[in-house]
């Protein structure tokens, strides 16, 4: 299993791309600005998009992907966009409304669209390419999920945007865990804004990682542009036992 980090920043700046992971070259987990670094041929190979939630930095690649590949995918099944019912409804209401963007769930023809929307529920296991992906709980300001991609050496888990999340750890206690990709959007001196916006800061991260085996590789994502050095220094100062590193766009993770 190969996961390519297309974007892992909490917002945009030169060199910073928002959240998008490419799974085995055929599926996206979230579709932030990092999707734009794929070639048109790479974009045309994507068959599935798994969304954690409806916020712009995680979904804005979906409408642009549809526009870019519509002509190349004629005669092929639509790209399947998976998300909570509330996430998909937000796309219908606020993106594919023929005001912000054309409705690519009916283009180029209603019977042969380039996109189709597929609701998911926590606990569901999806067949994505040759992989099984489990939908996990997240705790954010809008309905949200996390995802676990099962691999031969354990699961690659992406928390999505989340604050403290007891339900996630309860499930992961029963799931072999190889790599945890977990957000830490803010510094400790911004803990108040982290709390109200449904994100983590280093001290909150430490509490969450108390539920995770010390052998688990922990990858930090969704840090705001220009803040990564500060956030990572604060994390390292906590003396956590886990191997911890910051993700960067362009990283490739191989799990089997």
UniProtKB/TrEMBL annotation:
<keyword id="KW-0378">Hydrolase</keyword>
<dbReference type="GO" id="GO:0004114">
    <property type="term" value="F:3',5'-cyclic-nucleotide phosphodiesterase activity"/>
</dbReference>
<feature type="domain" description="Metallo-beta-lactamase">
    <location>
        <begin position="17"/>
        <end position="199"/>
    </location>
</feature>
<dbReference type="InterPro" id="IPR000396">
    <property type="entry name" value="Pdiesterase2"/>
</dbReference>
<dbReference type="Pfam" id="PF12706">
    <property type="entry name" value="Lactamase_B_2"/>
</dbReference>
<dbReference type="InterPro" id="IPR001279">
    <property type="entry name" value="Metallo-B-lactamas"/>
</dbReference>
<protein>
    <submittedName>
        <fullName>3',5'-cyclic-nucleotide phosphodiesterase</fullName>
        <ecNumber>3.1.4.17</ecNumber>
    </submittedName>
</protein>
<dbReference type="InterPro" id="IPR036866">
    <property type="entry name" value="RibonucZ/Hydroxyglut_hydro"/>
</dbReference>
């Amino acid at each position: 299993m190969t996961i390519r980090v297309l974007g892992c920043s909490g917002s945009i700046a030169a060199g910073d791309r928002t959240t998008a992971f490419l799974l085995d070259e055929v599926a996206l987990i979230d579709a932030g600005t990092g999707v734009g670094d794929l070639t048109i041929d790479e974009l045309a190979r994507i068959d599935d998009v798994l969304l954690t939630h409806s916020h712009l930095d995680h979904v804005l690649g979906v409408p642009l992907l549809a526009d870019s590949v519509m002509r190349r995918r004629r005669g092929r099944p639509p790209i399947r966009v998976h998300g909570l019912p509330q996430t998909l409804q937000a796309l219908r209401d606020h993106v594919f409304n023929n005001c912000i963007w054309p409705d690519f769930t009916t283009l180029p023809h209603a019977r042969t669209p380039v996109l189709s929307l597929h609701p998911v529920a926590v606990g569901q296991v999806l067949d994505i390419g040759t992989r099984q992906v489990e939908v996990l709980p997240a705790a954010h300001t809008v309905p949200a999920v996390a995802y676990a991609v099962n691999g031969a050496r354990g699961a690659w888990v992406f928390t999505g945007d989340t604050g403290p999340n007891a339900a996630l750890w309860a499930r992961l206690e029963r799931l072999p865990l190889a790599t945890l990709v977990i957000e830490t959007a803010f510094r400790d001196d911004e803990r108040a804004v982290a709390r109200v916006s449904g994100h983590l800061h280093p001290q909150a991260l430490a509490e969450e990682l108390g539920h995770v085996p010390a052998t688990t590789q922990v990858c930090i994502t969704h840090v705001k542009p220009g803040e990564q050095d500060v956030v990572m220094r604060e994390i390292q100062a906590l003396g956590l036992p886990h191997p911890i590193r910051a993700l960067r766009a362009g990283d490739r993770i191989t799990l089997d």
